[in-house]
Amino acid sequence: MRDTRESRLLLVLLVAVAFALITVDIRGGQESPVDGARQAAAAVFGPVENGVATAVDPIGNAIGAVRDSGERHNRIAALEKENAALKAELGSDDRNRSRLRELDSLLKTAGAGQYGIKGAQVIAIGAAQGFSWTVTIDIGARDGVQRDMTVLNGAGLVGRVTTVGPSTSTVLLANDPDFTVGTRMEKTDELGFATGQGDRPLLVQLLNGKAKVKPGDRLVTFGSAGDRPFVPGVPVGEVVRVDPSGGGLTRNVYVRPYAGFTKLDIVGVVVQAPRSDPRDTVLPQKPKPAPTVTVTVTAKPPADGEQAGEQPQGQAAEQPVRGEAEKPAQDQEQDQAQAQEENPNDQGDATP
């Protein structure tokens, strides 16, 4: 339609008529004169609207499903994140409990030996300085750590400090082949030198070739001059094998160390030595042997009328055969009379 004066006039007229009808409809309420026309239009266009709604419902449902799916995905992601956080929290609690036990054991060992220690955590393992068995701890010169200080944990000797940085230090472990420490046997005081053998037991060379030693005997550190690099009394390990004595000047024994070098976590650096040698007081108490069970068997006394050594009931006892001397006198007289009747001419040696 072309934009002319007549078309514009017609448009204004239709708009005016529409406003007039709306005004009449509003003022008329339920008795509006256009209500019939509205119902007729609803009857005509209602099915068309339902059809269009039915046609477009899948699209609307799909849009709603996509929207709800996004919300559910976000909710699932939030729940998974919360679950992971709870698992991490539980794991950290278990880890904290384990570290708390290690720290408690370390403090008990340090207290028994009167060692002044600085607690540390193992943060790395490896050959930091070319050694094959080393660990790195998270304390250094700023914490008072110096070279050639003893390192221990709650179980016993761990090693010695070899390199010190501002905030970290390197520890040479006791099972390294380049590691050697003086040892002393519990009770017998036999001296020796323990050398690391990697993942095998420590090799201890006793200075007394005739020393009496057996599996189960325990060793502690002998100590060094000026308590560097080793303080005395630190538990080293337990003898597991003894080489036969060959009459030499020394004797070799093999010791299982108390410290587990493959699972180190909380350790302590001895920054202050004890005032006196703790001797064997730091060693853990040996478990008490299980009580021996003793069974006592008491013989049953014989019943009335029974004699010792008599055959048990239910077994046939051999009856003794009575000889002639055991027969009563009356029986003997009867036997003699019967013999005379059978042999009347046989008088024997009887005297008239």
Write a structural description:
This protein has 352 residues and is α+β, with helices and mostly antiparallel strands. The chain is built from three helices and twelve strands. The strands form two sheets. It has a six-stranded antiparallel beta barrel with strand order 1-2-5-4-3-12. Strand 7 and strand 8 form a beta hairpin. The protein starts with a helix and ends in a 10-residue tail after the last helix.
Chart the SSEs and their pairings.
Layout: H1 5-28, H2 35-113, E1 116-125, E2 134-137, E3 150-152, E4 157-164, E5 169-173, E6 180-185, E7 191-197, E8 200-206, E9 218-221, E10 235-242, E11 251-257, E12 266-272, H3 329-342
Antiparallel strand pairs: 1-2, 1-12, 2-5, 3-4, 3-12, 4-5, 6-7, 6-9, 7-8, 8-11, 9-10, 10-11
Tally the helices: what do you get?
A: 3
Q: Which structural class should the secondary elements be placed in?
A: alpha+beta
- The Cα radius of gyration reads 54 Å
| Approximate shape | elongated
- Calculate the mean pLDDT score and round it: 77
Which runs of at least 5 residues are low in confidence (pLDDT < 50)?
314-326, 346-352
Helix content: 25-40%
How would a textbook summarize the main sheet?
A: 6 strands, antiparallel, barrel
Q: What is the chain-wise order of helices and strands?
A: HHEEEEEEEEEEEEH
Strand order, sheet with most strands: 1-2-5-4-3-12
Termini separation comes to 193 Å
What's the β-strand tally?
12
Oligomeric state as shown: single chain
Strand coverage percent: 15-25%
